[in-house]
Amino acid sequence: MPKINHVVIVGAGPSGLLLAILLARNLSIKVTILDASDKIDSNPRAAHYAPSAVYDFTRAGIIDDVREQGFTPKGICWRLKDTTFLAGMGREPEQAEFAMVVLPLDRLGPLLVKHFESLPNTEILWGHKLVGVQQDADTATALVETTKGEKKEISGDYLIGADGASSGVRTALFGKEYPGETLKQQIVATNVYLPFDERHGYWDSNFICHPTDWYMAARITKDGLWRVTYGDSEDLTREELIKRQPKRYEEILPGNPKPGDYKLMSMSPYKLQQRCAPSFRVGRIVLVADAAHLCNPFGGLGLTGGFADVGSLYDCLHGIHIDELSPDILDKYSSVRKGIWRDMIDPMSRANFHRLWDPAAEKARDEFFKMCDKACEDPVWGKSMAQSVMAVRHDFEQYFKSKGGDGVGGFVDGGKA
Ligand SMILES: Cc1cc2nc3c(=O)[nH]c(=O)nc-3n(C[C@H](O)[C@H](O)[C@H](O)COP(=O)(O)OP(=O)(O)OC[C@H]3O[C@@H](n4cnc5c(N)ncnc54)[C@H](O)[C@@H]3O)c2cc1C
């Protein structure tokens, strides 16, 4: 007798939608998604999905469509402001089954919605804002206000907070404070048609190192749209940051382009945050992705970590559903996922960021560049480096009772733990 009938997911962002597809497609669980907005967020955000995410795209049955709309990037490198090459890796086409894929979120989102809505027992309730939560021994309930002013209660066996950085679910559980810090610098992310590859010989992903004029330029679509994300001062308001964009492009980009030299498609300033929720589980309510943890976007670890939460939580709910795991596995989910953020995502994302501008990071930068050289000289080792991000995943199926697990995150014989 299946244990889970209905899961309520708050947030139709990429993490909520991926979890929803996994549950509805593979386990035939009824899934309701609530979203405060009336449409998918179209701001320039994630575009690069690491091999760990591709693993879960494959399990969700969406990878063929993602690859068809997106592409596998060739080469990531670091340069000086005058475009001088410092180091790089991955110039050869990646042939691995789970090779990274690039597709901007505003294109991935509609693809995920299409897959989700094609499955039975699924619904997305747009204009439904979560304002509180309740739970008892058997159910978890979302307290919702709609854009029409109605108040509703929507209950399921589990309630998942996939509602992003300002998560209503996390706030309902732990209050307004999100432990961690806001970094000093601000960034402006822009999507632009400007052929860096043809004009300046840029690779698909380029990080430009400079004390003040650091930036990232990466091709993010097959038709030549580029993401340029640059830094600016912490004192500026959002409006000032937006107004300064033409000046900053002219100051920092090669060839000092003026507005007529490129076609700007979208832009958004962001603050950079490193934060982690006190726990990712309270009873029948579970947090994933930006609702649970944040990091700066350099190196693309934000949603990479978020999708890895989704993969782990899917394993847990699968195990609970077929009585292979106890609901107490969700405590292990919380401790394992928090540990991966603390030991891997937080330090790696900080190192990726400091490598761009911080003189104190010079020694670490030189060592990192030597590692890039080694990856080029020894492609087998280089490939293993590219796949090392798989460590962000944690397989909870290993704790299934039929596989020798004890159902709560250990092993019956104790040997593997
Ligand atoms: C410039 C930039 C570039 C990035 N690049 C990368 C990258 O290349 N690779 C990578 O891995 N990561 C990257 N990231 C990080 C990535 O974009 C985020 O981690 C990701 O978007 C978070 O997804 P999510 O599903 O957790 O939340 P979101 O995408 O924020 O979705 C949350 C959803 O919840 C809804 N919502 C919010 N509050 C409520 C509420 N109270 N009730 C109901 N609904 C609610 C919102 O409307 C929204 O639809 C980047 C981030 C930035 C800023």
Description:
Residues 6-345 form the FAD-binding domain. This is FAD/NAD(P)-binding domain-containing protein. One of its GO terms (molecular function) is oxidoreductase activity. This protein is of the alpha/beta class and 417 residues long. It has two domains: 6-67 and 102-180 and 274-403, FAD/NAD(P)-binding domain; 181-272, D-Amino Acid Oxidase, subunit A, domain 2 (D-Amino Acid Oxidase, Chain A, domain 2, 2-Layer Sandwich). It is 34% helix and 26% strand. It contains twelve helices and 19 strands. It has helices at 14-27, 51-59, 63-69, 105-117, 168-174, 196-200, 238-243, 245-252, 302-321, 329-357, 362-377, 379-387; strands at residues 6-10, 30-35, 48-49, 76-80, 85-89, 101-102, 122-126, 128-135, 140-146, 151-156, 158-161, 180-193, 205-209, 215-219, 225-232, 263-276, 281-282, 285-287, 293-294. The strands form four sheets. An eight-stranded mixed beta sheet has the order 5-4-13-14-15-12-16-19, sandwiched between helices. It has a six-stranded mixed beta sheet with strand order 7-2-1-11-18-17, sandwiched between helices. Strand 17 and strand 18 (285-287) form a beta hairpin. Helix 9 (302-321) runs antiparallel to helix 10 (329-357) and helix 11 packs across helix 12 (379-387). The longest helix is centred in the C-terminal third of the chain and has 29 residues, at 329-357. The two termini are 29 Å apart. The mean pLDDT is 95. Bound molecules: flavin-adenine dinucleotide. Flavin-adenine dinucleotide binds next to helix 1, strand 2, strand 8 and helix 9.
